[in-house]
Write a structure and sequence with these properties.
single chain, Heat Shock Protein 90, 2 domains, 71% helix, 11% strand
């Protein structure tokens, strides 16, 4: 082995190890840089010792034992991610093909000879390493935080290529023999990989579209809830004004009675009563936002002949924002009201029971409502096939997860039960 070949062999080893480290999400410190540098030096020294005592062919056979396995262990010590450490090593190995093919292309176009091949590969090492670290590594690192299935999907092609290369070119000579099933395998792998990527991208796009739609729905619901609160606040303010002006109303009524204008007094009393009833806000708890939402739905339930009982003890100051509390209550009560409307349509009695209180800084909510339909659950979450429905449940789940809370949906004996702790 001449000096150029030796330098090229060393450079490709460094290229792969540095690139594999760049693919890992490592919080770099001075100590870690020293550890990486020392590990690379030790592995290169191990390679040198093996090269000295054995021939090149033997070294190619045991190269995974003296380079890839030790480097995967080094990366695991830095990241504590065993699976991703191996995926990084295999992905870096795959990137070495880019370096080799570019050199082959340049040599085929302008030069001849094995010496030029090694020299061009050597010259390509630094610029290609810089480009991959700058442009590819940041995107690849983010995959290390994805689900295990996504990581495995990403690492499948590098792992298969790695196994294929060693099986057909190093441990056997099947590739050089031109066996069709071997020579056509890479084209097959590219085709399958392409189809898997297309399917996966479309699935992710569908999920993203659903999430966008749910977020849009949640935003609209929050706006609607806040508008309802403002209207109720206005109504409550009117009621306070009426109460404040009660003395004037009584004076007017007294004047009517003194002048024997009884019908006029009766009409005036009826008008005031209707106006006060219209703007009445029931007091369920100290929290104004919860009060207004509960009062609104209690009124809707009463109008439709649905019995709604409320037991709440929510203080004015809680850790939920006012808009989040309104969206949570509005969605839960809206779903309960819809279910009860279907029960009423079948000429049966419908009931909604609301229990809510705060304890040790957490809000506990339970809503039990009559339910006529059989509920289908998917991973514990009620589902529906009706277009435009189901966003209320999604909004509830998203809000509870936002506050790192717990939700539970269940149904039994004609009742649907929602329990929330957050």
């Amino acid at each position: 082995m001449n000096i150029i070949e030796l330098l090229n062999s060393t450079s490709v080893g460094i290229f792969g190890m540095v690139l594999a480290a760049a693919f890992c999400d490592i919080r770099w410190t001075k100590q870690k840089y020293i550890f990486i540098g020392s590990s690379i030096t030790l592995i290169l020294m191990l390679q040198g010792i093996v090269y000295y005592f054995f021939d090149v062919e033997t070294v190619r056979y045991i190269y995974p034992l003296i380079t890839h396995i030790p480097w995967a262990i080094v990366l695991y010590l830095l990241t504590r991610q065993m699976l991703w450490s191996w995926i990084s090593v295999f992905t870096a190995y795959l990137c070495c093909y880019i370096r080799r093919w570019l050199a082959l292309f340049i040599v085929a176009a302008a030069f001849e000879g094995n010496l030029m091949q090694n020299l061009v590969e050597l010259l390509l090492t630094l610029p290609l390493l810089w480009g991959l670290i700058k442009f590819a590594a940041p995107a690849i690192r983010t995959i290390s935080h994805y689900r295990i299935t996504t990581q495995c999907l990403f690492g499948a092609v590098p792992v298969i290529c790695y196994g294929f290369d060693y099986l057909t070119s190093i441990y056997t000579n099947w590739f050089l023999q031109g066996i069709p099933v071997v020579t056509e395998f890479m084209a097959f792998l590219c085709s399958v990989g392409y189809l898997i990527i297309v399917v996966n991208v479309l699935e992710e796009e569908r999920k993203y579209s659903q999430l966008e739609q749910a977020q849009h729905s949640l935003h609209l619901q929050a706006e609607q809830a806040m508008r309802e609160i403002e209207l109720l606040r206005t109504s409550q303010q009117k009621t306070r004004i009426y109460r404040h002006d009660l003395r004037h109303h009584l004076q007017y009524i007294l004047s009517c009675l003194e002048n024997n204008r009884l019908e006029q007094a009766k009409t005036y009393i009826s008008e005031i009563s209707v106006e006060l009833e219209k703007n009445k806000v029931r007091q369920f708890c100290e929290n104004e936002a919860a009060n207004l939402i509960l009062s609104t739905f209690a009124g809707k339930a009463e109008e439709q002949g649905i019995v709604m009982t409320v037991k709440t003890a929510i203080p004015q100051t809680i850790h939920l924002s006012e808009s989040d509390l309104c969206v949570l209550l509005s969605n839960a009560l809206e779903n309960a009201l819809h279910a009860c409307q279907k029960v009423k349509a079948s000429a049966k009695s419908a009931v909604i029971e609301v229990t809510a209180y705060e304890q040790n800084g957490r809000i506990f909510l339970q809503i039990i409502n009559s339910c006529a339909e059989k509920i289908t659950f998917n991973d514990g979450i009620p589902t529906t096939t009706r277009a435009g429905h189901g966003f209320g449940v999604q909004s509830i789940c998203m809000l509870v997860e936002k506050y790192q809370g717990i939700y539970n949906f269940s149904s039994a004996e004609g009742q649907f039960i929602l329990r929330i702790s957050l």
